[in-house]
Design brief:
By secondary structure, the chain is α/β, with parallel strands linked by helices. Helix content is about 45%, strand content about 20%. A six-stranded mixed sheet has the order 3-2-5-6-9-8, with no helix packed on it. The protein is globular.
Amino acid sequence: MSFHSMNKLLVLIVLLQSFSFVAQVSIKGIAVNPGSKFQIGMKTDYISNEEVILEETISDSLGRFNFSVDLKNIEKLFIKNGNLIGYLYAQPKGKYYIEFSNSGFSKFGSENEVELVFIQLDSLDINYKILTFEHWLDQSLNILYPLKEKNSGEFLNEVKKFRGAVNDIYKSENNLFFLDYVKYTLGMNIEELQDFASPSEIDKFNFYLEDIPIKWRNDKFFGFVSNFYDKYFYQQSLEKRQELMHLIEIGNVKPLLNILENDDLIGSAQLAEVMCIYMLSDLYFDRVIPRNTILNFLYNFSKLEIDSEITSVAQRLFNKLNVLDAGDKLPLYTLKNTDLTQLGGKPIYIQFFNPSNKKCIAELAAMKKLYKNYGAYIHFLTIYEEQSSYSKLENTYLDQITWNKASAEANHPIWKD
């Protein structure tokens, strides 16, 4: 074989190795609204919760839509349609047929969560396993809750029996993602249910977190971690809180990480890094420390030279939190129908409005009252997303806004800021 041929062979081998772990996932769906935009995406991590859109499409005249995405591992994906969102887990080479309904949804922040209906779901698929387990868990919790109030002895026996049954059922299971899903779901539900008979914090740490690698792509792992370390800062001694606050104020990351790592309920550099980001997020929203101080610390954290996903998480959280806040000076954005330079002399009350969102619509009555009482002293401005067309009902809500209103395109910087 010539040197040139060998080089071509080596390139081919490298290419094959690069793509050998990626497999396509096919998702075919049907919805009640034809000609509507659908998006599929995932969270880059479960701390910053930044979303990335993998693909988007328009449903056909029958409401059908298709996605094909490449995945290396099992991932939790979302499908969006306007302010509706549904979740599914997808495994490499998986084929999914779903119904995306706009009825029977529950409130989920600014979005409404819908349950996706699976059609002809394979019993070996991760969704089948998760849905079966969740149904079993719900049934068991319905039995356990009444016993908890009536008979502590019977309650504890039933908890023990349930945990034993879970171990027996899944002892031959080899899907590590699913096993972790079960483990940390039980940690968030069954352990906390036991109250007085619940394992100690150190026992829970030893079982769920000690010497366990960070499971970056498992949302239930991070759900457990978030619950376990909830309000960690406030549980520390006054002396330790003061030391942590001092290090945050001067932006000194590594000594703070060392303090966390030496905690008996943390014990590793990787968990200390994760815990640090959670703690900073808590302090940011609790307004315990000035916002710019937290942002400066996060920025320094993101620049650490460590081989870890956590620096990217810190950067994403920094970008998410580094936004306009109440009382900040408003940049002179260019908006249609409104010149911000003409709104000087008085404070500006800005409402961001989505005429298809129930929460926004419900706010209209309160906004009208505010405008009536304070319109002479405060500039009111409502900003909504510019679209090619709104429905007749949506236009009715927009027409109810009698004060200054302006539209901004979907990629306008004001939505990011």
